[in-house]
Amino acid sequence: MKKGEATRREIIEKAAPIFNKKGFEGASLSDLMEATGLEKGGIYRHFESKEQLAEEVFDYAWNLAMERRMAGTEAIDNSVDRLKQILRNFREKREGLVAGGCPLLNTAVEADDGNPALRNKAKRAMTGLLARLESIVEDGKKRGEIKNGVDPEEIATLIVSTLEGSLMVNRLRERDAAMRVAVQHLEEYLEGMRGS
Amino acid sequence: MKKGEATRREIIEKAAPIFNKKGFEGASLSDLMEATGLEKGGIYRHFESKEQLAEEVFDYAWNLAMERRMAGTEAIDNSVDRLKQILRNFREKREGLVAGGCPLLNTAVEADDGNPALRNKAKRAMTGLLARLESIVEDGKKRGEIKNGVDPEEIATLIVSTLEGSLMVNRLRERDAAMRVAVQHLEEYLEGMRGS
User: Fold this and answer.
1) Which is nearest to A172 in space by CA: B90, B56, B121?
2) Helix extents (H) in chain B
3) Closest CA to A181 of B108, B161, B181, B87
4) Span A44-59, pLDDT tens digits
């Protein structure tokens, strides 16, 4: 990696918790300077604008989150068990993520007005996540592991809604109860989908 | 209502969509001046600070949302049917709300770092919503309308997680599908809770 590229990468990594915690609007230049240890010119030598930095930070944070959530699932043959592993990953694999919670939840809520580039990033991330879950359900139906009547798009949407909503509830509650309840509920629901 | 109080109320109503769409950080003084038609001094004659205005805006927006979501439910005797009415209200009664989506979702995600007063408002709102749903489940259990094994706190948490999460997914999708899927899923789940 060239030196310029390494610095660029370092700026993204250090700016990521700032954007993820404070949002695009809330992340100030002085926050970014403090986190990176660079002056304004040092940051913007590598990025055209705050928008561009924020977009690359989103990609970085989301790729990390997806890696964690999908970890070890390729090795699981049965599609229902694979979905259940994704639920468990969601609940348990939280170390190593960018601080500040799920970047998709943050960006969906914070960039829903007035920041079309970030919003498009979040839209594509959501579409990608739903498509990944849908394809697991579709494979499961083809192989008879999942009942024929099950609608892949509905299951994918329900999983993402329930998990992301439980993250939102958790932010306002002392304990992690909402995530536990969400995962247990979805596990039972997925069990009911198994083909005979 | 005295004139000062009427002006105060008008400022809250006009500032509400700004805060709800742009967040506390994103709502600038010039946005607030444009929305209210007042100069800075005209706004801050009635509020000590942007924080205070934002807190009162949250209360206003949340009260409106709760009114809509609970509308007509007192008249329904059976507790399961009452919960189902709340789900339908959530999906359908969206006119008259403050523009910018659910104020609880917005505030939970945007005020989770660095804005303790607003965060406390959101925490109390969440606690109140959960308590309201829990008490309906508890009443239902006492009257034998809901099975004995059902945990009121779990059901309340699951309902709020699933609905709020579906609002988040909806923000990034073209159609209203996530909300429809969430409500239908919860309706079926609540049906399964009925006592014999």
Assistant:
1) B121
2) 3-26, 29-36, 40-44, 50-70, 79-92, 103-110, 116-142, 152-172, 177-191
3) B161
4) 999 999 999 999 999 9
CB contact under 8 A, A169 and B178: no
Q: Write down the pLDDT at residue B80.
A: 97
Whether B100 contacts chain A with CB within 8 A? yes
Give the residue on A whose Cα is nearest the Cα of B105. Answer: A168
Q: Is the pLDDT score of B112 beyond 90? A: no
In 3D space, the residue among A125, A18, A58, A16 whose CA is nearest the CA of residue B168 turns out to be A125
Question: Does A169 sit within 8 Å of B164, measured CB to CB?
Answer: yes
Handedness of CA A9, A14, A20, A26 (dihedral sign): negative
- Please indicate if any CB of chain A lies within 8 Å of the CB of B190: no
ipTM of the complex: 0.93
Nearest-Cα distance to chain B for A186, in Å, is 10
Q: What is the pLDDT of residue B1?
A: 66
One-letter amino acid at B156 equals A
Higher pLDDT, A130 or B116: A130
Task: Establish if A99 touches chain B: CB-CB under 8 angstroms.
Answer: no
For A97-114, the pLDDT digits (tens) are 999 999 999 999 987 666
Rounded Cα distance between B132 and A39, Å, is 51
**pLDDT of res. B25:** 83
Nearest to B169 among A23, A157, A181 (CB): A157
Residue B98 half-sphere exposure toward CB, CA atoms < 13 A: 27
The per-residue pLDDT for A1 is: 66
Q: Which residue of A119, A154, A166 is in closest CB contact with B181?
A: A154
Residue B42 burial (CB count, 10 A): 13
> Structural domains in chain B?
53-191 (1.10.357.10)
Q: How many CA atoms are closer than 13 Å to the CA of A123, on its beta-carbon side?
A: 14
Interface residue B124 vs chain A (CB under 8 A) = no
The confidence score (pLDDT) of residue A25 equals 83
A20 contact B CB<8A: no
**For helices A116-142 and A103-110, what crossing angle results, to 10°?**
130
Of A92-101, A152-161, B184-193, minimum mean pLDDT range: A92-101
